[in-house]
Design a protein that fits this description.
The protein is elongated. The protein has about 375 residues and is of the alpha/beta class. The chain contains 13 helices and twelve strands.
């Protein structure tokens, strides 16, 4: 789609300006320009980029046009594109950008013959872009192209089957089938407590602990051991201050974590990034602490992949985690994908652990997935 946009611009216009948009400017460069530039230059076009000004000049066939890069991260991003006059705009992953930015970008295309180009993965059925542009494609005189993962000629059958195994529930329907569906029911609906086993006998190669910190809310710690490339949640600690009738101090939680470790050499303690006082208490006692990545939806997706592929295993001894898997569910809200903020403390510490693996170059990190939507 990016290649088509550039060829259309260079064929139909001379001396005009165009917009290239994504949630961030880095995303424009990584997901769009890195793929498109080799194709454009191989066709004989000259590509001149001014990184500091986020501008690209393309010359060829007696024509020259300018392309400006914009990041639509939040509501304030609309001001970045306001005032410019464009002959066309490409919004990559448009469903991830705020409506105010998208509408401002569309309003900038006032040159005769200008066109709007959109691409995205599906989101929920109440998303404004789905309702206005996809359901209203005929009214807006838009050409709507829908692709499922099986339509991607760049993926082999083996890779497509691997991705199909990775995703579950709403993520499978969106990323593999390309459907605009709501998140509903249990988050990990495939999790089967009856299939769990006891922790394997040692030795384990490495040990880590993941923590979701709570004062009035429950605190959940998980002890993870790696054996033959698989991480096992072999033991856990779970404390509910409301149920117990007493809150604990940071120092007490540090002692509880020490008892969970039982003298093992813990490589990392991965902690909720908002637990600043607890992080400092751990560091004062000599623990190596890693602040967790708290991207909820991405963490849920990666956790589901890791569970389905057997890269992490929840052992029978972890009663609190097993209980939460059976009740952790999506909010009844078709507008936004949100998990219900209850029975989620072990779920959070497991998610923190999985996301921490990505920093190592990703034995649990997901590979690149082509767009299933547009």
């Amino acid at each position: 789609m990016g290649t088509s946009f550039f060829l259309w611009a260079m064929t139909c216009f001379q001396g005009q300006r165009f917009g290239l948009c994504a949630p961030t400017i880095n995303a424009v460069r990584r997901n769009l320009l890195a793929q498109v530039r080799p194709m454009i230059t191989s066709l004989g076009f000259q590509w001149e980029e001014r990184m500091s000004r986020n501008e690209i000049t393309i010359r060829g066939a007696g024509r020259e046009n300018m392309f400006y890069l914009y990041g639509g991260r939040n509501e304030g991003s609309a001001a970045l594109i306001q005032g410019v006059t464009l002959a066309g705009v490409l919004l990559d992953e448009v469903a991830l950008m705020p409506r105010s930015f998208v509408e401002q970008a569309c309003a900038r295309c006032s040159i005769t013959g200008g066109k709007l180009w959109f691409s995205c993965n599906p989101a929920g059925p109440e998303h404004w872009f789905y309702k206005e542009w996809i359901c209203g494609a005929e009214e807006k005189n838009a050409c709507y192209l829908r692709f499922a993962m099986e339509d991607n000629p760049g993926l082999t059958d083996r890779v497509r089957k691997r991705y199909a195994r990775m995703f579950q529930g709403v993520f499978y329907r969106r990323y593999v089938l390309g459907e605009w569906v709501a998140a509903q029911g249990l988050v990990y609906d495939f999790f089967d407590p009856a299939a769990l086993e006891e922790a394997p006998a040692g030795p384990f190669q490495r040990w880590r602990i993941s923590c979701d910190y709570g004062i009035r809310n429950p605190a959940s710690f998980g002890l993870w051991g790696e054996k033959d490339g698989v991480w096992y949640r072999v033991r856990e600690y779970y404390y509910d201050a409301v149920a117990q009738g007493r809150q604990k101090t940071d120092g007490e939680y540090v002692r509880d974590l020490e008892r969970l470790a039982r003298g093992r050499e813990i490589q990392w303690v991965v902690v909720d990034p908002s637990a600043a006082s607890f992080i400092q208490a751990l560091r004062r006692e000599g623990w190596r602490v890693q602040k967790a990545n708290n991207q909820v939806l991405e963490g849920i997706r990666r956790t589901a992949e890791a569970l389905k592929e057997g890269r992490i295993v929840i052992c029978r001894e972890c009663a609190a985690a097993i209980r939460e898997f059976s009740v952790y569910c999506w909010e009844d809200d078709c507008v936004k994908d949100r998990v219900r903020k209850e029975n989620d403390h072990a779920m959070d510490d497991i998610r923190y652990f999985v996301m921490s693996m990505e920093r190592e170059g990703g034995c649990l990190a997901a590979g690149y997935v082509e767009r299933a939507g547009w």
